[in-house]
Amino acid sequence: MGTVIYTQKGSESVATLKTNYLTDLCLIYRESQFYVMQIPSFYKKMASKYFQFQPQEKIIAYLHSSFIAGLDKRGICFTNKGIYWKSRGMKKGKISWEEFANIQSITIRKEEMICFNDVEKFQVNQNDYSARKLVSLLKKIKKFIRTHSHEYMCQEYIYPCVSSKELTSICSSFQIHQTPDPKDVLSVEGQLCEEVEKEMRNRLYLPAKEKIVAHLNTYPLQKTEGITVCSKGIYFSKSFKTVYYPWHLFRHVSISVETEELKIAKKHSLSLNSAAVSSGEVMLFLKQIKQHVQALYEKEVDIKHDNKFAWKMLI
User: Fold this and answer.
1) pTM value?
2) Distance CA 33, CA 65 (A)
3) Which of 131, 155, 179 is the last residue of a domain?
4) So what's the pLDDT on residue 302?
5) CB burial of residue 212 (10 Å; 0-12, 13-18, 19+)
6) Is residue 32 left, alpha or beta, with left meaning phi > 0 and alpha meaning psi from -120 to 50?
7) Residue 169 lies inside a defined structural domain of this protein
């Protein structure tokens, strides 16, 4: 799931992304030991052996819910068949997507215990991942299944990858030359210092193969805050919160500015008060990227799984 494959288009080899709506939902909520697409092999092997998945069952995402990384079996695993879990002092459990769709309530008890229909199922806050964030994801999944179906949510589809070279070109054209050091405002590929890039990768949980194309800093005192353009998607980061959209989803996301606040999907915000560039320039920067991505997908007539109503439910 979420793998890059290559297809032949004429004599040219074209990179494409194989994904599904469940993967996209989990990607949006990815953070702190919640692994999507690039799941460490240790966790995949451990989960497969411990939960004994059905034949043809595929792991979509894995949330390691212990402070001790990689040393125990505590975690929550999302597959194309349902959810599996194991918490401290509790038996392992599972629920199919068919059963999950019929749950009446998903709640939190004592800021860490997730309950289905007021019955305690598993704990979350044994690491940095928020129980409230997980509940938000679970509610979104339930709504999606009830509106469409779990089969539709897990059905695979293919989208073209966005060229890093073209993204770099767009970002480079927006570098601000009036400032003493434009790289402090908008750094394109190769201009981020090693220390900042390492810190950024740790903060965004970027795999080594994911390329950082550019970073627009919005808060000089914290160089990792702002807008980060990567090869597979875009990150909006501020203190204690990061919002992520893969490119095939970002083209559906609304972007606006209200009193120096960048509004993303009408529910997330990023302050531009301390940014060295104007809010208008930030909007122009994002619109140009969005237009490029949109034009790429409009050219791809082979896309048949592009349900705009379904996309709106994700964002």
Assistant:
1) 0.81
2) 8
3) 155
4) 55
5) buried
6) left
7) yes
CB neighbour burial string for 6-24, b if at least 16 within 10 angstroms, e if fewer: eeeeeeeeeebbebbbbbb
266 CB contacts (<8 Å, ≥6 apart)?
254, 256
- Please write down the long-range contacts of 178-182, taking CB distance under 8 Å and 24 or more positions apart: 179/276
Q: Can you give the pLDDT at residue 60?
A: 94
| Phi/psi at 190 (5° precision) | 90, -10
What is the residue range of 52's domain?
Answer: 21-155
- Is residue 13 one of the residues assigned to a domain? no
State which amino acid sits at residue 173. S
* Four-point Cα dihedral 284, 240, 89, 22, nearest 10: 0
Helix or strand holding residue 261 (H, E):
strand 261-264
The type of residue at 61 is: A
Answer yes or no: do 168 and 303 share one domain: yes
Q: Which helix (H) or strand (E) holds 109?
A: strand 106-109
Q: Is the pLDDT of residue 10 over 50?
A: no
Provide CB contacts within 8 A for 246, sequence distance 6+.
Answer: 17, 19, 24, 27, 232, 233
Let me know: does 269 contact 263? Beta carbons within 8 Å: yes
Question: What is the residue whose two structure tokens read 């767009």?
Answer: 170
